[in-house]
Amino acid sequence: SSFLRQTYGQRIQNHTNPAAKLLLETMERKKTNLAVSVDVVKSKDFLAIIDAVGPFVCLVKTHIDILEDFDYSTIQRLQDLSVKHDFVIFEDRKFADIGNTVALQYSSGVHKIANWSHITNAHPVPGPSIISGLSSVGLPLGRGLLLLAEMSTRGALATGSYTEDAVRMARANRDFVIGFIAQRTMEGVGLQSHSVDNDDFLTLTPGVGLDSKGDAMGQQYRTPRQVILESGCDVIIVGRGIYGKDPSLVDEIKLQAQRYREAGWQAYQERISA
Ligand code: 6AU
Asked: Is 94 a catalytic residue?
């Protein structure tokens, strides 16, 4: 029977990768499938938003390269907050180059992503060598990788056989690839007749909003219910729906985080009891 009927806690045993286990354990413990995407450019706002939403999330997603005042001390503060509030860190780096280059981008530069980010993601476009490159750095550190099997934007090219091939690449690298950025579960995608023994990959889904259908630059939003209950995804990733236009309104941000957490968890409970 499908892992989609299992609880997050029950699914821990379907995984061997430490980052996948940590995420599922955190979701079960804190009763939340909400991830917040903190796409702001000042470290002060970045840390204030994370401290505000921390109690309500299983994961914080970063774009560390957009911080205009980046300093490695921000990473130390981020790690302190991840301990204080018990959340997983996901640097949304979207690697997309040859193995040798992505290994350097992952380990080095000013950001040293592999040192602090439990999870990162990559476009499957270069083929399996992108996984070997990232895995050479991340696997010894217990990190996990998500492949972008689909995207949330209007006109996205990641569809059809591209998506199926991404899933096949993931199945061939189960030790390091823990799941997908996608708009629906990839369970059974690309399989001919017989199924595989354990197809439990995590699906983290952006393009989630309760009040808006999209933005002026191609983003498209669906509700937590559509994403978790109807499409079989596991984690809702919410950015502007939570921190809105003014990152200094901390009380409003907390309220929105609670609202999305509630919506995501209710949809999950409906799914596992269906
Ligand atoms: O909720 P938003 O629209 O403010 O932010 C959505 C976040 C952004 C995007 O870079 C990211 O999710 N994202 C991704 C990821 C997570 O890889 C893929 C995608 O298809 N769409 C998308 O919006 O930080």
From this structure: yes
Q: What is the pLDDT at residue 195? A: 74
Query: For 102-157, what is each residue's pLDDT tens digit?
Result: 999 999 999 999 999 999 999 999 999 999 999 999 999 999 999 999 999 999 99
Report the percentage of the chain scoring pLDDT > 90: 95
Name which residue sits closest to atom 11 of ligand 1, judged by CA.
206
Nearest to 42 by CA among 1, 4, 14, 74: 74
Tokens (6 digits) for 229: 């209950």
Atom number, ligand 1, closest to the C-alpha of residue 146: 17
Catalytic residue, chosen from 94, 112, 213, 254, is 94
- Residue 238 three-state SS: strand
Cα–Cα distance between 274 and 272 in angstroms, integer? 6
Provide the H-helix boundaries in 64-155.
Answer: 72-85, 99-107, 113-116, 129-138
Tell me the pLDDT band of 1, cut-offs 50, 70 and 90. Answer: low
Ligand 1 interacting residues, C-beta cut-off 6 A: 37, 39, 63, 92, 121, 148, 151-152, 181, 206-207, 219, 237-241
